[in-house]
């Protein structure tokens, strides 16, 4: 039940029902394509003529197109409808602590070019200059992707979703940074910026197909830091100060290791890639001290390979991370109780090794028996959840439900 805000509302107008039906049709085409007008009418519970009027408008606006025809025993062959992603593209950008990734997708967030990557400049001005140069270059080199609808950017930090100002990105050392205006001016394109965890959650909501999409979910991405995105009632949860879902900075132990945010004992300080590698090498790799080249070049993938090869120390390091991962997931379940949790990041390449430990840690803290065995899905890095989420920042608004009351 949602209460109407008597101070902030939107009155239904004469066109409101048509706008809602248009968006319903657009979303059903996206979910079930290819789909005929007859099948769309059945799904919507409308007369064929009413659906044809909606489709005519969508065709005129270039939102959908008619493709191949189907085979039937008698009568007129149906013409199938598709979301029109031809000749249009979106640039997706994932800014991480060490490297920045760029991928070009179509309007359905399907990869067309890339990803390509380059070292991340921590100076915002230098990063904007390098990023804009790279974006213009990749579009110039691949003109076959068509006109660009805009650029979606994800960052490892808290973002004001109204202004796209980056409020705090601890691992980048950024506070109150605005790169949107400068990047828009440099590229001449529309720019959307969001927290990486929230964008990953959006990517799953956007990617949903079938008859039972999940509208309440959590997405946890473990990499240089820990990002968490929450979808509640089909919407990204931002909160009043744009920090909703920052479970990575909820403490597991206030006397624990120092986190990138400056506090101690945060969940991130126990399960990030650097935390896992620090556990393996027996030294705090976050300290500003020279690190031997062989350690600096060592990755989570290398650690997992050693664990699979029988290295007991490597196995112990990733199993400790697995337990802490489970404990933190329990906090999300106890607070939000999502229908599904998605987990991504380099450590999930060892999911077959760590899942039992993750679930044991989760069950240890879950408040009810039913909540102790949640639906957890691993999203592989090859699915590019951050980049797909960045693309969805530009593509998804066209499918959003109209605001009424």
Describe the structure.
By secondary structure, the protein is an alpha/beta fold. The protein folds into three domains: 16-83, Arc Repressor Mutant, subunit A, CATH 1.10.10; 88-202 and 388-399, Nucleotidyltransferase, domain 5; 211-381, 2-Layer Sandwich (Nucleotidyltransferase, domain 5), CATH 3.30.420. It contains 13 helices and 16 strands. The chain has helices spanning 16-32, 37-44, 48-60, 124-141, 180-187, 196-207, 268-271, 273-281, 293-296, 300-308, 312-336, 351-365, 385-395; strands at 35-36, 64-69, 79-83, 88-95, 99-105, 111-119, 147-155, 158-159, 166-169, 174-177, 191-195, 217-222, 226-232, 235-236, 340-345, 376-379. The strands form four sheets. Strands 6-5-4-7-11 form a five-stranded mixed β-sheet, with helices on both faces. A five-stranded mixed β-sheet has the order 14-13-12-15-16, with helices on one face. The protein has a three-stranded antiparallel β-sheet with strand order 1-3-2. A hairpin with a 5-residue loop joins strand 5 and strand 6. The longest helix is centred in the last third of the chain and has 25 residues, at 312-336. It starts with 15 loop residues before the first helix and ends in a 10-residue tail after the last helix.
